[in-house]
Structures
1.
Amino acid sequence: MAVVKILQYPHPLLKSHSRPVKAIDQRMKLIGKNLIDTMLASPGVALAAPQIGEPHRMIICDVSRKMKENHHGRIILINPVIRHKEGKRIFREGCLSVPDYTGNVSRAERVCIEGQDLKGRPVSLISEGFEALALQHEIDHLDGILFLDRISSLSTDLFRRKVY
Amino acid sequence: MADRFIIITAAGPDRPGIVARIARVLYQTGCNIEDSSMTRLRGEFAIMLIVRLPAKKGLTEIKQSLKKVQRALGLSLLLRPLSKQEARREQRPLGRSFLLSVYGSDKPGIVYHVTRLIASYGINITDMNTRVIGPPDNPIYVMILETQVPAKVKLPAVHSELRKLKRKVNVDITLHPVESARF
């Protein structure tokens, strides 16, 4: 078991693009294993490889740790790509790499994501709700995007008068 | 010397540049703006800032430096030193976050009745907004509170009290946990 330190902003990797995974070799498998161990040891429900100092396009997500909503259990995705987005949901997000702050982020309610698993097999899944939000958050990490870049409103904003 | 903090509260007629002018003075006097909350309420802009003082200056000097801006912008201004405990970044967590929405035809006492009830349970308000909305002949009062509910509070009891209040004051009330997660 290897629990790795989760990087925190302003570590530059958190604002960098991660590299596509070309071959799932021993090293990539080790990164996958470390992602699992580190997530399980953390209070979070998902993690992206750059958060543990590995700038490769790999994410892990397991929302069953927190929610009983529809979910796929533990998902490890390599080179994940969002093929389709639907709906909109505002949710208060925090991030293991940005301590002590949460913000309202608007994301798609439902996504179709393609990628590969740790054995290189193609994976295609339709995810919705909480899990879909977590996956979008992690895929953002692969492009150096933090939830702070996507804050959609201050909590009070909902009630601010609008001039139409 | 240990860090010293003050809180500055200010309000004045809204216009572009209020924050910039205050921030300029604070920057030039070596103050550091830490946590802040600012918002516009109708035509008024209200400001709360926690400011770290520079080593060699005190509250009085900062107040003096802000005088000119205060006059120019017509601000009411208050500066108060903070104790170490008050200035701590990590405040004692008081429990789980809940959002309380209250709305109904505008009438006196809504804020009082609701806040008295939740205070009696030791529920702490961390954020609160109220707005009068709707047409002038039929104003609706909307009140949104973010609260921290101590673990020892029995939620069914609070819900039941809120239901009673709902009937008594004739407003709609919902209390629900704030959904949030760290990814």
Note: The radius of gyration of chain B is 20 Å.
2.
Amino acid sequence: MKPLLYLCALAAALPLWSAAAAPPLSPLAGTDPLSFAIAPGKPILAHRPPQRYFTYAVAPGQSVNDVVAVFNPSRTAPLTVRWSASDARTPSQGAGIVVSDAGPQREIGTWMHIATQTVTVAPNHVTFVPIKLSIPRTVRPGEYQGAISAVDLHPTTITQGHLHYRISIRRTLAVVLRVQGPASAGLQIVRARLVAPNKRAVLALTLKNTGTVIDHPIATLMTFTGPHTSYTQRPVIGALTAGAPTTVMLAVGRTIPPATYRLRIQITYLARLSNGAAAQPFRTQWTGTVTVAAGMRS
Amino acid sequence: LNRWRALFTISTVSNTRQGNKDMRYAFRTLILAGALVALSVPVFSVTHSVSACSNPDCTTSATGSGMIDTYFSPLEVNAPTIVCDEVQLSGEHPNYFSGCDLTFTTLDPRGNNQGFVVSVSSGGFSSSLAFDSATGKFVNIPAGALTFAEADAVLTHCYGLFFGLACESVKAVTGNYGRTLSSSSLPVLVACPANAAGKGQWANHVRLNLTVPDAGVGLIFGEDALSWTGNFTVTLSEGPTIDFAGTYKCR
């Protein structure tokens, strides 16, 4: 009976190997791709539609197990990558949300545990690595963002004279987390002042997200009201992660004659207070005075 | 049946007891699969994958194919090259200066023009021969000696269905001009999302200025006997959470 089973196994295995030899679909790549890719692994294992990033809704004190997949499309060379998890937060200047992959991690960068630090993937293979997201009990409910990254540990090396360059490729996957519980939205315009680097009129606008969810500004209206006329401007401001302060430098887009102006700033932003809910609009405003000095240009 | 075959072949890779058990399960699964194929029953599945990897240090491997490829973003960045101007021995100047041109191509065959961001980070340069015997430490050129000077991208291919241009506009993140490199990724190029369906390929160029002060490491930088190795990482980021309009001023 056993030999028969082995023959059956062989019969099953052979077509599989030939399927493995089929080149991956890559519509524009004529040669062996040098790049690699990572993706959420569970949809692959469960044959569900592809997912381009991780999304979780977890209560404080809870954890969730998942899998990240790394694909080596090379037909000849093995791939070794090193994993890392990072926070994504609003920088102190410029607003927006960027992955903070250096320095101390405080949120997703510390809550995400990847089972293995490095993994080697055979040519034309996919490897699945377990990950675990553990939310401490003390975490405030709200929205958090981060990333899982993989960096190729076999960098391209270029030598020029006495300088050698090792260039690695890194791929990132966004992690979008909702810590469940009562959340709040808030955006404070802390201050606005006119600064003049190189005599150019630039408005330094300091904002702070005072809530626990991400603020997405969708419309900003700035009105300069002077002794004789008024000027309006509609700058674009990036999103702010929960609790983040940031200063946005906005070039004053037109020539404003020297004078003291009453400045009114109104920001309309969207925020999601609960998981899966539609984004709600909120509004914040600030009023003060700014003085355009002689010699400032826009 | 071919679809299932294309999705998975082999195997569990693990050095744990659980992994060995899974290998036995995989073998039994293979035997079962053989019997099933012999009977032409269109069932072939892998049941061990997730549970096998619930323990630490366990990874599961499957063979790639056209089908499994669809689960991964096909966005690619190829192996970059870097060319630097010859390092000028400063003489009376206060530093050594060299301009470096980092070139690479990016390929977005997704067709949906969702945009992406290319960032660069560096660990600076180090030399195993550059040693300060007074402090007992190696002498390094920090990443901060490298400045992002400028960047540009040329669309070399745009495969669309219509005559009009159907690919994202890739542009420099000019707000980061003049900023120094560090171990944290500095965005240098952004592909702004476009309301079009096309597959594009770009030739990208990033100009980095290397300025090594004459003091400190500059005292021995440029010595022919010393060989300096610099580490650079080019990061490709995508995803719906990138704030293209607010952070990168895409419209």
Note: Residues 1-51 of chain B have pLDDT under 50 and may be disordered.
